[in-house]
């Protein structure tokens, strides 16, 4: 056990799918997994391990932001021998032609976060995800005939910002969308020699103003969930 995860070693699968929201974790475990078992609920951050089409998988919440993702992904990689973490979550689109519920596969994230700097002195502000995992997910998306866009996102430390210039983020750093957790996840994977990637569903379009409801955010991302679960096979 760790200070933040109460599961015993062996109760966490080698591959973990990480939504931010604990309620989304519960939804996935109940709707998609067989023989799912709650293995950790410290601070309300739920983790279930179960079977999807014969494959063992753990679904665990990351919470919001790099500090929270940083804690849970580090402990999973370091102390539970997890090999792969796939973040699934929502994002705000910076471009007009990414509509609500479109899928984004993150191959790079740009961030001005200090997470990597103060974790181990890394001064990079662009980090890569696992090409191996990305290739598997892209191939499965083609097989399932899901449209998915591969690209870079902005990982922000601030949800409500008075100074972030979205046009600069798009033009200078070539980011398709914004989210808040991938930078810490990719950094921890790189530091610990593990694999990680991130699949996102567009929940807001910052150009058109379109927004998904909170209920849609919780249960309306089934294409993303199906894609990632089937990629495990």
Explain how this protein is built.
The longest helix has 14 residues, at 66-79. Strand 3 (47-52) and strand 4 form a beta hairpin. Helix 2 (66-79) runs parallel beside helix 6 and helix 4 (131-144) packs across helix 8 (222-231). The protein has a five-stranded mixed β-barrel with strand order 5-9-8-6-10, surrounded by five helices. It is of the alpha/beta class. The protein has one domain: Rossmann fold (3-Layer(aba) Sandwich). The chain has eight helices and ten strands. The protein has helices spanning 22-32, 66-79, 115-120, 131-144, 166-173, 182-192, 214-219, 222-231; strands spanning 15-18, 34-40, 47-52, 55-60, 84-93, 103-110, 126-128, 148-155, 177-179, 195-205.
Label the CATH architecture.
3-Layer(aba) Sandwich
Superfamily (CATH H level) name: Nucleoside phosphorylase domain
Q: Please, how many helices?
A: 8
The span between the termini is 28 Å
Radius of gyration: 16 Å
CATH class descriptor: Alpha Beta
User: Could you tell me the mean pLDDT?
Assistant: 95
Unreliable residue runs: none
Provide the structure class: alpha/beta
- Counting DSSP E segments of at least 2 residues, the number of strands comes to 10
Helix content: 25-40%
Into how many domains do the coordinates divide? 1
Strand order across the largest sheet? 5-9-8-6-10
Q: Roughly what fraction of the amino acids lie in strands? A: 25-35%
């Amino acid at each position: 056990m760790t200070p933040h995860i109460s599961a015993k070693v062996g109760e966490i699968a080698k591959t973990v799918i990480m939504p931010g929201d604990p309620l989304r974790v519960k939804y996935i475990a109940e709707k998609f997994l067989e023989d799912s078992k709650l293995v950790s609920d410290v601070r309300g951050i739920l983790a279930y391990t179960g079977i999807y089409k014969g494959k063992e998988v753990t679904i665990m919440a990351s919470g919001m932001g790099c500090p929270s993702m940083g804690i849970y992904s580090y402990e999973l990689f370091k102390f539970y021998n997890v090999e792969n973490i796939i973040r699934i979550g929502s994002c705000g689109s910076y471009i007009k032609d990414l509509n609500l519920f479109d899928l984004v596969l993150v191959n790079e994230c740009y961030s001005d976060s200090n997470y990597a700097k103060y974790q181990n002195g890394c001064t990079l502000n662009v980090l890569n995800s696992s090409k191996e995992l990305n290739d598997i997910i892209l191939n499965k998306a083609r097989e399932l005939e899901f449209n998915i866009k591969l690209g870079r996102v902005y990982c922000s430390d601030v949800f409500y910002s008075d100074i972030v210039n979205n046009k600069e983020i798009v033009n200078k750093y070539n980011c398709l969308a914004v989210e808040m957790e991938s930078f810490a996840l990719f950094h921890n994977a790189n530091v610990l020699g593990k694999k990680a990637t991130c699949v996102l569903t567009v929940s807001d379009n910052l150009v058109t103003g379109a927004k998904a409801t909170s209920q849609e955010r919780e249960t309306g991302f089934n294409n993303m969930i199906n894609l990632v679960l089937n990629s495990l096979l």
